């Protein structure tokens, strides 16, 4: 028997996650001097200067293990959200938290409700534990909360809400969240993935924190990888009921967030000016790209995140390859089943202009 045949059968139901192509790889392969990466929803401004200084100051102490309890970071988050420290969980990015929640709560045969297309780690976290993902199609790019709730059964253990949704950027408003919480049974843990919430400026945004404070079974997930610009340090966090945190912490590894990441996250939380600057730059870029794509006759999905889903009307892989040759990396959405769309991160004004020119040229070549 070959060694791969000893692997759990659930492993072979999974599709490998395909990240955005690295800029350095494209430079090497094509011999380009400059490559713009607008594929992974990173903050084009980078991290807060306070976080950068913190990283530099701590560089000489990386031989010391991090604080496994993350006291300073949990204290900062406790003060930010006005919840108890024992309601805060941390992970090596919010995707690790999703995986660990699956390990904690999903048994073989259990079900989890999730939108489709959406963040693929939801499906992975369930399948790997022998559970059954119940994928409910979006409606015009938006989560169909009513349809998702209708699929809940006694076997349902988790219910994923990606808000704003990745890859469409759609927001779930207050009324839809209220409908969900009015109709979800108590045996289901609602996992609200709010990775892009800091970019939302709409007052009708349906955040889930108040339901957690009311004592509901809700896990609210955030990350330092997006608006805070710390994607390379991999720090995510969740705000959860204390009993959920107690179970979660029995599953996670002791040092699943590193020392520099914890400290830089604290510094990033304090720099409200950098967050606001990032938010304003994103809103400006979103308006510009939406208008230009519309002028080009392309369908643009409404987005409340830091990225836009645009339907090119043709094979997105060919458009992606055409843009690559011009030094622009975006995200083809074929893995989500969207064969004509691209997910494009909002960049700096200069990057956005380069992207638009490259896209116009590519579409003309493919016409």
Automatic annotation (TrEMBL):
One of its GO terms (molecular function) is histidinol-phosphate transaminase activity. Its cofactor is pyridoxal 5'-phosphate. It is an enzyme of class 2 (transferase). Pfam families: Aminotran_1_2. InterPro entries: Aminotransferase_I/II_large, HisP_aminotrans, HistidinolP_aminotransfase, PyrdxlP-dep_Trfase, PyrdxlP-dep_Trfase_major, PyrdxlP-dep_Trfase_small. The modification N6-(pyridoxal phosphate)lysine is found at residue 226. The keyword Cell wall biogenesis/degradation does not apply. One of its GO terms (biological process) is L-histidine biosynthetic process. Its EC number is 2.6.1.9. SUPFAM superfamilies: PLP-dependent transferases. Homodimer. Belongs to the class-II pyridoxal-phosphate-dependent aminotransferase family. Histidinol-phosphate aminotransferase subfamily. HAMAP family: HisC_aminotrans_2. This is Histidinol-phosphate aminotransferase. It comes from Candidatus Fermentithermobacillus carboniphilus. The gene is hisC.
